Amino acid sequence: MKFSVNWLREFVDLPKNPEEIAELLTRAGVETENIETRGANVEKVIVSQITASSRHPNADRLTVCEVDDGSGTKRQIVCGATNYKAGDKIPLALPGAKLANGIEIRKTNLRGVESEGMLCSPIELGLGEDASGLLILSAEAKIGAPLSDLFPGDTILDVEITPNRGDLLSHFGLAREIATLTGKKLKSTPREAKTDIKKSGVTISATRECPFFSARKIDNVNVGPSPQWLRAKIESVGIRSISNIVDISNFVMLELGQPTHAFDADKLKGMINVRLARGGEKFLALDGKTYSLTSDNCVVADEEWAVGIGGVMGGEETGVTNLTKNILLEAAYFSPASIRRTARNLNLPSDASYRFERGVDPEMVLRASQRATELIREIAGGTPATEINVAGKLPTNPADVSLSYEKCDRVLGISIKRRTVDEILEGFGLKQTKSERIRKNGSSKWKIPSYRRDLQRDVDLIEEVVRAYGADKIPGTDRSRFTPASIADHAHDLESAWRQRLAAAGLDEVRTSKLLPRERFAFSESAIELRNPLSEDHVALRPSILVGLLGVLDRNIRAGAERVAIFEIGRTFIPPSGKEERHLGILLWGNVASAPNWRSPQSRSLDLFDLKGALECAVPNLSFHSGKFPDLALPVDVFSGDQMIGFGGQLAAAKSNSPGPVFVAEVHADLLLIAEETATKFREIEKFPAVTRDIAMIVPEEIPHETILRSIEEPREPLLESVELFDLFSGREIGAARKSLAYRLTYRDRSRTLTSEEVNAAHAKIRERLRRDLGAELRE
Amino acid sequence: MTHPLEQLRDDALREIESAPDEQALETARVKYLGKSGSISSCSEQMRTLGKDEKPIVGKLLNEVRNAVTAALESRAANFRSQMQSEALARIDVSLPGTPHEIGALHPLTQMWERSIEIFRRMGFALADGPDIEDEWHCFDALNTPPEHPARNEQDTFYLPDGRLLRTHTSTVQIRTMQAAPPPIRVIAPGAAYRRDELDATHSPQFHQIEGLFVDENVSVADLKGALEFFMRELFGAGTEVQFRPHYFPFTEPSLEIYVKSKALKGGERWIEVAGSGIVHPAVFEAVNKARGDNAYDPEKWTGYAFGLGMDRLAMILFDIPDIRLFGQNDLRFLRQFA
To answer: What is the pairing mode between strands A113-115 and A108-110?
Structure first.
């Protein structure tokens, strides 16, 4: 909310520097977000009148003016502007004045002519951007008066009021807070209504939603424009001036925090009743829109129609117009919960509902009515009824709150003198109930002021103590403690290890949005959509990580990347239930190296085997089997043990618009994370040497590596330790539809040195198997 | 008078010194130290010497052998160095090193890892909770009933079945307390969602670390100690930390945390970095009700909670001007943080 510092000063003395007020409030939890200076904040600038002017004897573009400054003697001023005539009233900066642009005015001599000051344009006074000519003042301006009389300087504070502090949503309320924080006395408080109260003339059916309602008739008002001071005041904090009656209602709300509403009394039919709306009841509000009400909404109604949505907005048809003669002034208390429901359901927030939602001060309802009545009589004339019609009961004062001093110390972690605590709470308007018994217990009991309904429990009082005492004065303490690792810790560490390994393997980690645009559910048939998306880019929860990775690929190809090797580990949401699974996604595209380099000038493209390698690098002991997957050419299923954990392959050409093949894989990481963590056990390092033998062979192209490997390994040769493929090629020299492979076989016995005879025997058996089973042509 | 052995030594050293190549050096070695070399044969003659002479000549012989051996080795080393220098003379050491592709971790991951590492040193364990939540965990249990002005459904993404995307990671506070009695000392990294348009400072998906410590006598002082330590570890020892009263429905008192550090851009400004406070007793009461016991008796236990915005902290720490850069994943951006 915007606050005028001048307005606040009517209630409390403030530090001269607005920055200081802002700092004071901010440190007490009332954050000042912006400070704006308005009006003419210049001294020694007065209203003057040009009585005569003549051409400068030595300069074509200058004139010499004779100016009346109100002192009786005329001044001579040299001036460069041309937009004036004799008789105009112009702001005059006297010698010693400091202008908005920082220039200090002195008596000078301009081309041989004395100039005793300067006639000013708006920009020089900080009154706008206009630099084209002098600021011509109104003819009524008093000669010699300070310019700040015409353009009073003010500072506007934009303050963030937290939802618990409805009592600060008025100038009086904020001034009261500042008075407490600075230890100053309030200069004035709103007067109590002295008018007779009559419990008739209005009724309430919806007592839960509207506990109290008052109406005061004021006859024969003159509706018209507001006087300048009123207009300036409400406009300074961003409220548009409409008419004197409406402006007064807004003024009182800004001053005291209590919304009021004026009806055109002649358009009301019969007595006012506050009731729940009839389902489907239509209502034309002051904003010109028609609302369809439900039985949840509380309305102010005459005998025929709803004339206002209680506490939210008045009706168009019964609003004050220029023709209005007699008005009915409403001031009421609406329950915060009901107002919030209504404003939210109708999507109709207003300045009034904003305050009722946060709770207005029950003691301010009739005072606000009185204040508005007085202002209306003063400004718009009119005769207020001698009595005010009321119905219902104002909420009783908030319940007393007990505070244990020991608990206060315990929660804050320091020891504060009881006296200090008492003084702070008393400063905020709380009153201690005298009870020796309670005090002996180390506690005190406090009466809460009507405007502080947020103070409900001891911790609320403790917060007040921190606010006033200063959080800075509480020294930090060390409360570290031993905490065993949780399941989430283990999962996190494993995930971190994967990240590290994949990065070390040359893949960049990305983080993509979990919210996807519509129709981009590749790799899943559907996705969970939001009920209330805000933009078309964020409509559904991702069922797969790969959609995001493909987006990253597009962006980087467009940016000129030659290699995109990326991964992401994160949550996915599996339809239809939205089960959250942590997935690892990998995408490879482009060259093995991101730029050509002199060590390996013949760069090759990333391929399926790089993808398998990347997966194996993150997750040990994977196996791959050709699988089926709709969006993939070359699909492979990824297994850990005998559990399938994901898939990978080359993106189907139909699904890809990238130049060159794109390889993707996605695995369900949770399945791996839940595996029991067991410490690796040491195995004795081999003492006896290994013997290696290579086999080179030519086989028909259709025989896969997997088959050859099985033929080598089964039935198992006890001495064979490992098999590695180390060469593979096909080409014209070995004939069409054939390929050449070379394997290195390692033989070892862990308990003795092998003889070449026994290795030869084992190796010969394997060679024979290859020849017999696969028809392999073995090279010597 | 020079002993013949000394004469032999001087001859040998001269010959070694002047050997023009390795072959000549080998010839010299054989000549003096070979099986039938001069020095070897002198050793043979030792047997013929008298008792008095033996130790003196023996000592001298040893010295001569050592001197010749050393000279041979030194000369041989010279030849090896020379050969190496010739072999390497054509190598251009200014050529670049063999490049390795090393990937970068996303700056948000780095921010998370750094934060988690600091909190772990203070004895926090990790906790976790779902992104898809219900209204009770996201609002009601956190002292924000439907009519509460701080409960803003406008800013919340809902699923068709009435569930929602959590608007803060504070939901994990509730889940952790439901699952285990006090004491609790956890941090929960995770994503949260607000119904905001994507712009330079807002993102519908953002990232947080939630913290919760419940024990006997947990105080504002303890909260300050922990978060001051965290901020100084993160932003440097010279960082100033300020706690300003604020309002959150689920903490009372509530404090917003500001830091100021010369190491950061705009160094003399206070920057808001986190929200925190003492857990509101109403939160404990809601948890107790759900648990069906009084494990979190507000008179016995107190706690502090905090929430740190990872995107914001990373933007401050790494001087990143636009939150959208995190989601765009331009490799030229990511690689800066490798």
So the answer is: antiparallel
